Amino acid sequence: MASFPDSVNENEIGKAKFIGELLVPVAPFDQKSGRETWTVAFAPDGSYFAWSQGHRIVRLVPWSKCLKNFGGEGSNRAGTRRLSRQNSEGGTVVPVGEPREHTIDCGDIVWGLAFGSSVPEKQSRCVNIEWHRFKFGQDQLLLATGLNNGRIKIWDVYTGKLLLNLMDHTDIVRDLTFAPDGSLMLVSASRDKTLRVWDLKDDGNMVKVLRSHQNWVYCSAFSPDSSVLCSVGAGKSVFLWDMDKYSLIRKLEGHHNDVVSCEFSPDGALLATASYDTRVIIWDPHMGTVLLELAHLFPPPSPIFAGGANDRWVRSVAFCHDGRHIASITDDRMVRFWTIDEMSPQAIAPLTNGLCCAFSTDGSFLAAGSRDGSVHFWACPKSIASLQHLCRMALRRVMSTQQVQTLPIPPSIRSYLSYQDL
């Protein structure tokens, strides 16, 4: 495991480039709780951006329109602008075939949301049912929303219409995640201490209830091959589940406070978890070992201090699709951009009351939601991945750490492929 540096000079850290924001109308009642942006998400194909803007409302905006309003695409990102909040259905003419904006009233406070896309040849796990209410096509794109009342509502992204209403949780649905294999298997994490697995290709049939958490479940994430699920919550443990057998593989111990966010690297070789203990831990999920700790307080606090209240709670962590960059949101009003081979942030940016973050599908931008219902965007630090790293990612997509360790190759290469050089 890598050690911490003695200090970090913030003058040596780059500043992330702010490119725009999505704002909500200000009204007197907005000062009350319920206006928070608890979740932001990008569609798998990069076509849409969605965020829970508070007070039951989810906004779906074509990502290309966001970029256009922010002042450019690709290298043309000069100006910082605010995106108009006018609904496209309120008079704006949208050409046929172009993505439309939608404002969705979910009926209750929205805590979690996730995009899901289908692959028609991927069969439902409920093989005995021949008739289904919905036939999902090749271009089907769904949005799942988890609500304060324990319900999950499934929407058609292209039309904004409600398709399914899933009811089984008994408390807030805090997080949602779709299996990335196109099967439309959905996992919900709830304050009722359970994770529930739903098969949307079987009209939303609940397949399994996963029980091991003793307290609220905050977040869950699939591995890229959909075989493993990570879940974290109010407690110091990180849970790994076998999603073929729906059984617990192991619990990872290392945090000193509640673990609130988790995400796998694109090759599945790394797992990032964020905790109120002021740290992001990078794990080897195959071995259950700690590879790297990203500290947000220097020197690192003692376990007793980290286990209590402090101003460096890490609220969210996200892995970039290049497999090298990580973003974290903390209570010290900062967003940090890290690389897996550096112990200090590569870039930082101010963010007041940040709650969540997500990278765009191509990894060029980071979106972060805040307590006032707004979303802020930054251009991610640019760097060219080495051929070594690209080869490592390609190999690790199909090989576990155990398999890598049996390869007849020099120890230094084996260590590099296992990410043990972090």
From TrEMBL:
GO terms for biological process: intracellular signal transduction; protein polyubiquitination. Residues 74-97 are annotated as: Disordered. The keyword Protein biosynthesis does not apply. The keyword Cytoplasm does not apply. Pathway: Protein modification; protein ubiquitination. WD repeats lie at residues 136-165, 166-208, 210-251, 252-284, 314-348, 358-378. It comes from the Eukaryota. Keywords: Repeat, Ubl conjugation pathway, WD repeat. Pfam families: SOCS_box, WD40. Residues 381-422 form the SOCS box domain. This is WD repeat and SOCS box-containing protein 1.
